[in-house]
Design brief:
alpha/beta, Rossmann fold, five-stranded parallel β-sheet, 7 helices
Length: 140
């Protein structure tokens, strides 16, 4: 089974807390092939850059740089699925069907559909109505 981590699941692995360890345990038990996708990588890195840029250069940036490095180190532990032509075609179809949904969420959904992957997300209500997408929450 191929599973893709949404940003909220990925973040729990980066933070390495109770929920992240529970997620790792569930992944091990499932025997799933775990991936993330380029859109999750984009969200994770953009978020870390936003925090970094709010801090005054120098010592105030130490924690932000530490968290950026931790996010990058975690990303390198996974194969990252790209946003290819099939995902882009699926995204365009989904955008027409669900014009009010967030762009990034629809891109993540499109990648999962293109790869016939199960999406692991805490935001079930954001994805429940995406036709052709399988989604589960493995954090709670």
């Amino acid at each position: 089974m191929l599973v893709v981590l949404d940003t909220n699941h990925f973040r729990e692995l980066v933070e390495d807390g109770v929920l992240g360890r529970r997620l790792l345990s569930r992944i091990d038990e499932s025997g799933a092939d775990v991936f993330t996708c380029i859109v999750v990588a984009e969200e994770a890195i953009r978020g870390r850059f936003a925090i970094l840029n709010r801090e005054k250069p120098g010592h105030e940036q130490l924690d932000a740089y530490f968290e950026l490095k931790r996010s990058i180190d975690t990303l390198t532990q996974f194969d990252i699925l790209g946003f290819d032509r099939e995902a882009a075609d699926t995204f365009v179809r989904l955008r027409k069907q669900l014009p009010r949904n967030g762009t990034m969420d629809l891109k993540i959904a499109a990648i999962c559909i293109a790869h016939d992957a199960l999406l692991l997300s805490r935001n079930l209500t954001d994805f429940d109505h995406v036709q052709g997408l399988r989604v589960e929450n493995w954090l709670d």
